[in-house]
Amino acid sequence: MSEQQQFTSSEFGSLRKASQKMFRAITSHLGVNTAYVTHKGQTAMTVLSSFNEKEEIVEEGLSVEYSDTFCRLIINNKDSALNAINLQKDEFAKELEATAELEVKGFLGVSLLDSKGEVFGTLCALDKEEKEFSDEDVDFLKSMSEVLSYLIELDQTHYHMGFLNVPIIPITKGVSVLPLQGVIDDTRSGIIMETVLNHGAKHQMSYFIIDLSGLVILDNHFPTVLKQLVQSLQLMGIETMVTGMTPEIAKLEVASEAFHNINVRTVVDLESALERIGFDLTMN
């Protein structure tokens, strides 16, 4: 059903810190043992932060396949909430392996959204005893979720800020590397375009090698700025090569079309790119 995994959640530091302080209020107000926050990944839900007052039921770092979680029932619910007096008797929840494994009965969970209204995960409270949650209890947990959604935005902003710089690495005269990392949004696209073109003109570049191995693709959206960047460099007489094409990027049809239309050369890695332009890497 599930597995304990090493989960790095440093980019959600504000969320984790605030949720820990809120969990005591939630468990006290609702009269339950456990409160926790999950994050929805591609295939699984992972517990980012949890609090167990007496008995440890849900551990931080616990990862459960999405199809086998209570969270799926919450997110799929038209009201974005799951309110169950006894999960063992709930029509849908009783079929989940997690219900039997955790031996929980009373459960209340609501969706946790980011600033764009997209599902980030869930905020849940549960107990091994039957619990009847009122409409006021549901509203209370939803209000807690709304507070946490602001912290998600804060953490995501801090995360993206770390990638706002454009780390151009000079290799030799006329040759530089641009390693792209993280998410490229509209703001960062403008910074990349301006910085790279200014660098190319100022240093009279002959070659630019763009490495995509650290690029993060969200919602299958390939950054259109890369096509524009390559075309602009070509107009300036600067030859461009692309390295670090990951399987995830290669599978994107829009990425394939973008690189095909601009006839850019792609190579496996930086060493191969340097060899293509006649630059030898020697070990001293």
UniProtKB/TrEMBL annotation:
Bilayer-crossing regions: none
InterPro entries hit by this protein: Bact_StressResp_Reg, GAF, GAF-like_dom_sf, STAS_dom, STAS_dom_sf
Occurrences of domain STAS (ranges): 165-252
Keyword Aminoacyl-tRNA synthetase attributed: no
Superkingdom of origin: Bacteria
Pfam families: GAF (PF01590), STAS (PF01740)
Keywords in alphabetical order: Phosphoprotein
Keyword field contains Phosphoprotein: yes
Protein name: STAS domain-containing protein
Native organism taxonomy: Bacteria, Bacillati, Bacillota, Bacilli, Bacillales
